[in-house]
């Protein structure tokens, strides 16, 4: 149910994750008397009650696993209302912003709340996230979701244009995160939001021109340690790979066996095998080189966005 | 209004940062620090605010004002400036290296040295104003011994190791960040950690617990001294360290009768040398010496003359400490055996598969496991085994690629050098065995 702590069994009102297969996860709010249609047939919600998280549930045409929600799973299956940030970038953002329990953070815009969940997980219970979204419906949806996920106490969602009206926070936050089309327009306001003793800022932008303007503004406003980076994940698959061994020497030359001293034992035994084998069966698997291979995915996302980080010390 | 906890205090570990270079240092009165080829006394740092910038003048620290720092930081940039008449810049300098070194040893300030350099440069006047600014900036960087003093954070500590990643199993910030997120470590979590990264992973996890929950370092039952040096860098409070435990892997037994483990038959002779809780005493900081170009001299004489009667008391204290440690070990083992763990993190130089096989038996279902290895092959084995045994779902095997960029007006490009590897990561979620 909740993103704020683990619980062991499912209750009504919980948000559970249905694990159908690799990278195929669906969120479900468990409600009395309702039925959910899965690709394996009907799943009456009531059958989930009291089940341990992580257990397998039998459906008419197969089984699924019910999982406890985590921000990483949520990122995989949340309803997209905007482009979202994924876990590789999110991890880096949380780490580079020095977030930990107790940190206060300002974020704009909220978007689909993908990053917000990971931030809240890290800063609760004493920290707080102030997140801003100027799109009315997204603002409302995000607010509802945080409450449903029982993390509403740790976040304040504000419906506002931060570029036009600013964050309206003074010396309050340890870190600011920006995922906006024109981040440079609110950096002055972000600076005011950061605590007097200093803090961190991150801006995520897909285009290099945005990064350039952002860095210029950051420098102008006295931010230091400005770094820009790009982070990509390469997924690896393990497969049993087979490569054919080919014959490297002429097999019929009998004179070759004459000089026994020049042969290594290994070579001798190999040759014995080849000589004993029927020509037709020589393509058996013993002649193949088989091994477990780590194979990267054939295609992968080659760009998400540039992450720009900066510090401001006492200001 | 500076906050009290933002003040540098005696005994604190601090980070000296200058451009890309970070060094950790423990503040002690009259201690000499050696950073970026300059020696100075750290006395003046006590009572200053974290985030302050200093320059070194004849071995003394001078605090720089905020405006002065900004002025020195500003980059003059004008790309593609005309430099067709410029020859190899070093040969245009009449001053030789020895001259500069002499000025330094005479205690001349960085500003004065730069002045001299400009005066003795044949080409300075013929440079475009852009090149002049660039020249000045370069020289300032080199000769003004400026650095900022910061409170250690996981991010800064990672920077210390960026030039010697072998010491932390080639972990990179992007990998560490993923270990912390994919393990779902949060306030109050119970986390088992197998690591040989000098305590770096343990410290990062402890920081994310916010003084609640438990970090249990699972250690091999060998006599090797376990180094958890890096934990000291984080200035963890006694309160935070109370949530740190360690337990030898051999003490963990899988329950067979389904009853709760109350008392455990932990062999009390199981003693792990060097496996004491982190303490701030100077004598227990051996690894700090492993950092390059450090010449901090401590008063060695102080340590050596301990009175004999003090020795007796010391012995008693050790006995109490040993018992305390034993109790904590048992508590940690009981927690694990009662399946109260929330996350398992493995990032070590041990062969991971046997460790994975043993430890995942203690995890409840729907919990996160993260296995890091600097090599790909051992994780291929783990991946295959986990898949075959169906002990988990959403099994993900990955590596990350991370590239830094130089961003300057019209001179934006990837940084010339980048890290070739940050190791490999295996993550999955436990499930209950199909009944
Ligand atoms: C790409 S989305 C953010 C996605 C989010 N980081 C996530 O992980 O789900 C950008 C959001 O910023 C909002 N936005 C854009 N400009 C804004 C502004 N000036 N003030 C507030 N929100 C703004 C947009 O409505 C959009 O929802």
Automatic annotation (TrEMBL), chain A:
GO terms for biological process: tRNA methylation. It is found in: Nucleus. Keywords: Methyltransferase, Nucleus, S-adenosyl-L-methionine, Transferase, tRNA processing. InterPro entries: SAM-dependent_MTases_sf, TRM61_C, tRNA_MeTrfase_Gcd14. Residues 62-311 form the tRNA (adenine(58)-N(1))-methyltransferase catalytic subunit TRM61 C-terminal domain. It is an enzyme of class 2 (transferase). S-adenosyl-L-methionine binds at residues 112-115, 133, 161, 179. It catalyses: an adenosine in mRNA + S-adenosyl-L-methionine = an N(1)-methyladenosine in mRNA + S-adenosyl-L-homocysteine + H(+); adenosine(58) in tRNA + S-adenosyl-L-methionine = N(1)-methyladenosine(58) in tRNA + S-adenosyl-L-homocysteine + H(+). GO terms for cellular component: nucleus; tRNA (m1A) methyltransferase complex. It holds the Pfam family GCD14. Gene3D superfamilies: 3.10.330.20, Vaccinia Virus protein VP39. Its main location: nucleus. The keyword Nucleus applies. The keyword Cell inner membrane does not apply. GO terms for molecular function: tRNA (adenine(58)-N1)-methyltransferase activity. Its EC number is 2.1.1.220. Belongs to the class I-like SAM-binding methyltransferase superfamily. TRM61 family. Catalytic subunit of tRNA (adenine-N(1)-)-methyltransferase, which catalyzes the formation of N(1)-methyladenine at position 58 (m1A58) in initiator methionyl-tRNA. This is tRNA (adenine(58)-N(1))-methyltransferase catalytic subunit TRMT61A. It comes from Biomphalaria glabrata.
Automatic annotation (TrEMBL), chain B:
One of its GO terms (cellular component) is nucleus. The gene is LOC106072439. The keyword tRNA processing applies. One of its GO terms (biological process) is tRNA methylation. Residues 298-324 are annotated as: Disordered. Belongs to the TRM6/GCD10 family. Keywords: Nucleus, tRNA processing. It holds the Pfam family Gcd10p. It is found in: Nucleus. InterPro entries: SAM-dependent_MTases_sf, TRM6. This is tRNA (adenine(58)-N(1))-methyltransferase non-catalytic subunit TRM6.
């Amino acid at each position: 149910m909740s993103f704020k702590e683990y619980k062991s069994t499912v209750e009504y009102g919980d948000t559970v994750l249905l694990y159908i297969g690799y990278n195929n996860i669906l969120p479900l709010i468990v409600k009395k008397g309702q039925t959910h249609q899965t690709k394996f047939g009907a799943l009456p919600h009531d059958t989930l009650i009291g089940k341990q998280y992580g257990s397998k549930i039998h459906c008419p045409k197969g089984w699924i696993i019910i999982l406890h929600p985590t921000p990483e799973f949520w990122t995989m299956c949340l309803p997209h209302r905007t482009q979202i940030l994924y876990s590789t970038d999110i991890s880096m953002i949380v780490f580079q912003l020095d977030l930990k329990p107790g940190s206060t953070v300002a974020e704009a815009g909220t978007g689909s709340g993908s990053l917000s969940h990971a931030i809240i997980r890290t800063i609760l219970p004493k920290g707080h996230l102030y997140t801003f979204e100027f799109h009315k419906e997204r603002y409302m949806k995000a607010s509802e979701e945080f409450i449903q996920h029982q993390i509403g106490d740790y976040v304040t969602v504000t419906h506002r244009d931060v570029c036009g009206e600013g964050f309206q926070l003074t010396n309050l936050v340890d870190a600011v995160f920006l995922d906006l089309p024109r981040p440079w327009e609110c950096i002055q306001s972000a600076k005011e939001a950061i605590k007097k003793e200093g803090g961190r800022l991150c801006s995520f932008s897909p285009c290099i021109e945005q990064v350039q303007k952002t860095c210029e503004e950051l420098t102008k406003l006295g931010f230091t340690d400005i770094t820009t980076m790009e982070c990509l994940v390469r997924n690896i698959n393990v497969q049993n790979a087979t490569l054919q061994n080919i014959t490297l020497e002429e097999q019929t030359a009998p004179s070759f066996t004459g000089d026994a001293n020049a042969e290594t034992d290994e070579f001798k035994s190999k040759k014995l095998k080849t000589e004993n084998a029927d020509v037709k069966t020589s393509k058996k698997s013993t002649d193949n080189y088989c091994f477990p291979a780590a194979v990267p995915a054939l295609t992968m996302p080659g760009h998400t966005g540039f992450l720009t980080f900066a510090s401001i010390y006492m200001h | 209004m500076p906050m009290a906890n933002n003040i540098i205090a005696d005994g604190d570990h601090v980070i000296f940062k200058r451009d890309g270079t970070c060094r950790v240092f423990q503040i002690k009165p009259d201690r000499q620090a050696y950073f970026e080829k300059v020696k100075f006394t750290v006395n003046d740092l006590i009572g200053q605010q974290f985030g302050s910038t200093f320059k070194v003048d004849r071995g003394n620290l001078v605090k720089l004002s905020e405006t002065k720092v900004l002025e020195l930081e500003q980059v003059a940039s004008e790309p593609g400036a005309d430099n067709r008449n410029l020859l190899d810049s070093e040969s245009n300098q009449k001053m030789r290296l020895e001259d500069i070194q002499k000025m330094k040893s005479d205690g001349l300030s960085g500003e004065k040295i730069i002045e001299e350099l400009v005066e003795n440069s044949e080409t300075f006047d013929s440079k475009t104003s852009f090149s002049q600014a660039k020249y000045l900036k370069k020289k300032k960087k080199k000769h003004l011994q400026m650095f900022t003093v910061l409170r250690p954070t996981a991010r800064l500590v990672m920077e210390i190791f960026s030039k010697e990643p072998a010491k932390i199993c080639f972990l990179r910030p992007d990998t560490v960040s993923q270990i912390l997120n994919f393990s779902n470590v949060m306030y109050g979590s119970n986390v088992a950690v197998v690591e040989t990264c000098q305590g770096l992973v343990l410290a990062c996890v402890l920081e994310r617990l916010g003084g609640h929950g438990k970090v249990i370092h699972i250690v091999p039952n060998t006599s090797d001294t376990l180094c958890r040096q890096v934990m000291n860098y984080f200035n963890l409070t006694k309160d935070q360290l109370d949530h740190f435990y360690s337990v030898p892997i051999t003490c963990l037994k899988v329950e067979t009768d389904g009853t709760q483990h109350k008392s455990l038959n932990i062999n009390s002779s199981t003693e792990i040398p060097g496996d004491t809780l982190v303490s701030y005493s100077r004598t227990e900081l051996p690894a700090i010496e492993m950092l390059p170009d450090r010449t901090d001299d401590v008063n060695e004489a102080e340590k050596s003359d301990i009175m004999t009667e003090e020795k007796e008391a010391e012995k008693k204290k050790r006995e109490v400490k040993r018992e305390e440690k034993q109790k904590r070990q048992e508590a940690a083992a009981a927690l694990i055996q009662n399946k109260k763990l929330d996350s398992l993190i493995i990032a070590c130089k041990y062969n991971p598969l046997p460790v994975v096989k043993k430890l995942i038996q203690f995890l409840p279902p729907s919990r996160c496991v993260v296995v890091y290895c600097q090599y790909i092959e051992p994780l291929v084995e783990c991946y295959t085994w986990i898949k075959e045994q169906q002990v988990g779902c959403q099994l993900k095997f990955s590596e990350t690629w991370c590239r830094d960029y130089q961003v300057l007006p019209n001179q934006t490009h990837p940084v010339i050098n980048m890290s070739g590897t940050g190791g490999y990561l295996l993550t999955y979620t436990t499930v209950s065995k199909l009944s």
